[in-house]
Amino acid sequence: MGRLLPTYHALLGSRVTALMLTLVASVIGTPLTAGADLDAVRKLHRQGDYSGVISQTTAALQIESRTEEWRLLQASALTTLGRYTEARTAVEKGLDETPLSVRLRLAGYHAFRETGEAERARQLLLELDQLVGARDWAYRMPQDRIAIGKAALLVGADPKRVLDQFFSPLKKALPDFRESYLASGELALDKSDFALAGKLFAEAAKKFPDDPDAQFGLARAFESSDTGAMIAAVEKTLKGNPNHTGSYLLLANSQIDSEQYDLADISIAKVLEINPAHPSAHALSAVLAELRGNAAGVKTARALALKSWPTNPEVDHLIGLKFAQKYRFAEGAQHQRQALKFDPEYLPAKAQLAQDLLRLGRDEEGWKLAEEVQETDPYNVVVYNLVTLRESLSKFQTLTSPHFIVRMDPKEAGIYGQRVLDLLERAHALLGKKYGMEPKEKIIVEIFPDQKDFAIRTFGLPGGAGYLGVCFGRLITANSPASRPGSSTNWEAVLWHEYAHVVTLQLTRNRMPRWLSEGISVYEERQARGTWGEQMKPRYRAMILGEDLTPVSALSGAFLKPKTPIHLQFAYYESSLVVEYLLERFGLDAMKRIFADLSKGAGINDALAKHAAPLAQIDREFAERAQALARNTGPKLDWTQPEPAKIASEEALRTWVKANPNNYSALMEDARSLLQERQWEAAKVPLRKVIELYPNQHEGESAYTMLARAHRELGETEEELSQLKKVAGLSSEAPEAYARLMELSSAREDWPAVTEYAAQYEAVDPLSPLPHRYAGQALETLGQDAGAIDRYRTLLRLDPANPSETHFRLAKLLRKGGESADARRHVLQALEEAPRFRDALTLLLQMQGTK
Question: What pTM does this model have?
Fold first, then answer.
């Protein structure tokens, strides 16, 4: 195929640029149809009446045998129904009748590939190239220009030039010519530019609201970003064309992702009713068979997928892609390698293999493949992003420990890199022993100060703002605190969560449902530290006792299609409650046996039934347990949500509170209103009542926090301190409380408490100078000089407000430890910052006197 590139690149150069100036003018006003009968058959084709199309084109060809449009419609309908040999024959007859047709040659390229005749397909592209090169004046019809542009893309022509010189001019000159819209959108999808594809197909859908292909393009553009919008577009597609195989395949893909395997069977069956030989449908059946542990079914389905075209690379690429989406990267990579054996130049497989290898920690081969794809196809957005990211990663600092390789920004590595390693080693020791897992290779952890870089490394595209970290089995990617300024997320809890994924994914060989993997990770957060992980909160209580508790059998779908962001958070929390129930009800050994069965390919339902209980029983028992937990949360409080109108004014609020003295929402609203009005003493009353009736509040902004503020404003320091300690004991994401606790504890010279709260603050924001300054002072006072020196050095990396004081303290400690040269350097730096710093001058003189 590479031999065709020079001719096509010449075509896309000066010759075609000049030609386009006359082409656009010439096609304006050119009839797009050959008659009303042809229009009617086109309409049948768009509506999915493929048998009707075959019948009518067969009849028409007995009268108009030299009309290529009839052959094209006939071949397309035959292909859609899986009658590939007949489609090839139809194209061959068409070429006999109209031997100069470029459109039939493009159709023939696809038809011959479907029957496994790759050499003949390649020959047709070569012929197309030669015809256009010799007779470009003859191909001015817009349909021909679309075909030529598509053919140019097949042999590696510059996509932007094809778009600019073929598709876009036609769209501008002929705004009612649908094919230019569809071709432009397909090009964007092919290059993974989903934002552009969405824009182009939205334009097409607006222009042609009843066109199923425009709606389907929109569905594909939304596939990776908005499941709801995708499904809405699929519904519109199927309304216009009930036999649209692409839509059923898209639904099957989504259903497999959400572990709705029975529904995926139905969607695939719909495709096979229409086209019993559809390769992608059989490929997805192979995926489902593998996910169900049916090895024989995998072999049978894959063989059927390859029946008409035994070396079709798309089959193994699709199977491998779905495995990768299930985090089974090793198996996915095997299928991509098989696809590349069938066709070494098949770029989708090469690009996916690059991503699989990078997620497996096989960086050298992964980056090499990514660069090869980028060189061949510079417009592939995912690969372009990856190759660009490599430059950023090359600047990272690498830290190592016995079981981990950590890559992070050099400045951040100097500030909290060792703390990252220490935390991960603790997680390894505890969780590895608990579950009986010892990694065969060091675990790779990459921490990104730029959220966009994290998203590209993790997903291939910018986005994913809701994700803090992701584990692929051996590789963990995480956002650093610098990527989310103002956030109160605890990065230590995030890394602990992700390492728990390492344990469970490796034990099950990545063969576990998402709810179980996420549930164990959140559960283990809480086990490690009571303030970590998702905790019961008023919103969750209402969701459990309302209509939002998802059955265990459907929990994975809750992660894929949450109604709102809070529903996604709730899915994590609910999953952790399921794990807690399973461990307490059936024990850790039962969970390990479930892992072992999953690793061998067993389905989760079978594993649960074998080692715990049937899923129906688990659904029932868990629901009862979760509802009991919710009812026992603030059981004496009235949790009814007041109607907004009843608390719309201050007077109405007071009336409501008086009438509902135990209502949680009313009490909290009353307290907020009183605090806003600076009625500090009065605010204590509702806050104390909420705390009395609901003491276990884990939110950073809780009644404890609000009560502490009232005490502070009233100068009641002891009472404020008491409330803030409760906040620190209940929440791992309350930096304002930790900061105030450091301040109060320092004033009381409670230095152990200062170090404790500094550590809690650092777990949220290690890049702030504040905790390092307090910790340095506390450790210095406690006589822990080595620790104090480390903190002061870290503080200097963070550009503190008073660097001279830090240099001075560091100089004293270094001198005390016998490091005279370093001490002298720091005292001079202190004087450089503050020339009249008397204590530093005195220290310098003392040092000179002892030389």
Answer: 0.86
